[in-house]
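User: I'm curious whether this sequence folds into something compact or stays loose and floppy. Could you predict its structure so I can see for myself?
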Amino acid sequence: MYKKVLLKVSGEVFGGDREGLDYRAINEVAKQIANAFELEVSMGIVVGGGNIIRGNDAGNYGVLRTTADYMGMLATIINSLALQSILEEKYKIQTRLQSAINVLSVAESFIRRRAIRHLEKGRIVIFAGGTGNPYFSTDTAAVLRAIEINAEIMMKATKVDGVYTKDPVKYKDAKRYEKITYQEFLNKQLKIMDSTAITLCMDNKLPIMVLDIFKQGNIKSAIAGENVGTIIQES
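Assistant: Here's the prediction. I'll summarize afterward.
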C-alpha cells in the first residue's frame, strides 16, 4: 500500500528493559526494518534519544533546557549509529546517516535533495540530530523529515500498540482507538505525541500510524496496508 514511509522509533525502545543501549532490542528493531524493506519500500528513519537522556530530567538538576536538548540530539546520533551498523553488517542493507547538527566524522549533514537521491537509489536514510534546534521533540523532527521526503505516512513505533484513551500501563480500563482525527487527538490532550508534531501533520495532511514495534511483523504488515495500531488522520 505504501511506497515511501518515515519510521519514527522511540529512543526508549532502544533501551529495552534498562537505560542506555540494549543491543538485543536494537537488533530486534533492525530485524523488523530488514523484513519490511523486502517490500521494496523507500524508507526514512528517525530514532529518539530517550534511552540515553531525557531533557526534563536533566533540567531538574540545573542543566539548561537548550543544553539538555542538544545533549538529546547527540543521543539520537549514538542510537542511529548503532542501528546503521547492524542494518549494514548483519542485514546487508545500504544506509546513509544524515544529521541536522554537524558531526562530519560519522554522518552526512542533512540535505533534502541528497536524502531523496539516496532513497531513489534504494538506500535507507536515517535522520539524526532532531531538527538541529532546541525546544523541538524528535516526533516533530520525524514529521518534518516525512514532509520533506514526501512520505505517504509517518509510522511511530513504540512499546504500545496504538493510541489509548489514557495510559494503558496505569489504567486497565483504557481503550485503544483504531482511528482518531488530529483535532480529536489535540482536544483530548493525548500524550503519545506532542501537539507541535500533530499540528504539523494536520497542516500538511500527513497521516500517522502508531504501532507496537515488538510485535513481530508489525512494520511489514503496516507498510503492506494491514490495519495495525492506531491511525491519526484528517477524518
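Summary: The two ends are 19 Å apart (CA to CA). The chain has one domain: 4-233.
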